[in-house]
């Protein structure tokens, strides 16, 4: 069974907020695995191409990212570890 986790990123007054809420109409939807990948998503394998992810990582390194709760933070932290190891 595949569990689909979806998070939204909101930038408000220069602060990045990661939440369980997301805009279903957003043109920026990323998939972390091939199983999640479809014609409507961008695969994180090519993450270095996207300025939005570079900006997110830069802001994370500057302690400018906030998370809705600890569960969201732990999931995003695991994802960032996988991304930064590549």
Detailed description of the structure:
The protein is of the alpha/beta class. The chain has one domain (12-85). The chain contains 2 helices and 5 strands, in the order ββββαβα. It has a 3-stranded mixed beta sheet. Strands 3-4 form a two-stranded parallel ribbon. A hairpin with a 2-residue loop joins strand 1 and strand 2 (15-19). The mean pLDDT is 76.
How are the SSEs placed, and which strands pair?
Elements (H helix, E strand, L loop, with lengths): L7 E5 L2 E5 L10 E2 L10 E2 L7 H11 L3 E3 L2 H16 L1
Parallel strand pairs: 2-5, 3-4
Antiparallel strand pairs: 1-2
Q: Which word captures the global form?
A: globular
Distance between the termini: 27 Å
Strand order of the largest sheet: 1-2-5
Number of domains: 1
- Tally of extended strands? 5
Q: What class would the helix/strand composition place it in?
A: alpha/beta
**How large a portion of the residues is in β-strands, by DSSP E?**
15-25%
Summarize the structure.
The protein is an alpha/beta fold and 86 residues long.
Task: From the structure above, extract its key features.
86 residues; alpha/beta; three-stranded mixed sheet; two-stranded parallel ribbon; 2 helices
